[in-house]
Design a protein that fits this description.
mainly alpha; 226 residues; single chain; Methane Monooxygenase Hydroxylase, Chain G, domain 1
């Protein structure tokens, strides 16, 4: 019976994660295509639903803990779902921040061609999806793989900042627009960080290893030795 409840919690978590992944996609698509309808959908429709799902999943976890008083691994799994639930809520908030920034930019001329921001978004959404898959399947190899990808997201973020600073220095009239793009990139970087948090917890639950303070470069070469 408890195992059935945990499977229900996992399915609910996957549904919630799919929603926040869609929110990121729509926010970036709205930015690139200058489609206010996509941005409005994220802000006015998706965000309230995401908040409701977060509350619902929290209540489901709390009720399961009270009803079954699980021990050992089952307890850790439910507590992990609660933590991921909170991380997904924060990811949804970052997606809304991106939509807000895109809405500001939608009727303004572009500062520069957007190349690295879409690359950041694609990589970040994949990290979120894979972090959830790693948890559901208790796949530590996938979790380590996600951790190793964080360096690419950080590098793209740094490159975006350097490029935009150059643009602002050369043409002060771009400062307000460039700052919004910086904000969008920062929110993507924070989403990637939350995905890595999930993977670190997956590794801890499955292997009993704490990897929070290791350099992410380590994961690309040493993940089988930890």
């Amino acid at each position: 019976m408890l195992n059935d409840k945990i499977q229900v919690l996992k399915r609910e978590l996957v549904g919630y994660a799919t929603l926040v992944e869609s929110m990121i996609d729509k926010s970036i698509s709205g930015l690139l295509l200058k489609k206010i309808t996509l941005l409005d959908d994220v802000i006015n429709n998706d965000e309230p639903v995401a908040n409701e799902r977060e509350i619902k999943l929290e209540e489901m976890c709390t009720n399961t803990l009270a009803q079954f008083q699980p021990m050992a691994k089952e307890l850790r799994l439910i507590l992990m779902i609660l933590k991921i639930n909170n991380d997904l809520e924060r990811i949804g908030d970052h997606a809304v921040n991106i939509a807000d920034g895109a809405a500001f930019l939608i009727d303004k001329s572009s500062v520069k061609s957007l190349i690295n921001i879409p690359r950041m978004a694609e990589g970040t959404v994949k990290m979120v999806k894979d972090s959830i898959d790693a948890f559901i399947n208790e796949d530590t190899q996938l979790a380590f793989d996600v951790l190793g990808r964080d360096n690419l997201i950080d590098s793209l973020h740094t490159q975006i900042l350097h490029d935009l600073i150059d643009y602002m220095s050369a043409e002060p009239s771009t400062i307000e627009r460039a700052m919004q793009l910086m904000r969008i990139a920062k929110n993507l970087e924070r989403i990637a960080d939350l995905a890595t948090n999930i993977c670190e917890d997956v590794i801890y639950i499955v292997m009993g290893k704490t990897v929070k303070h290791l350099n992410t470069e380590y994961f690309t070469t040493k993940n089988n030795e930890i």
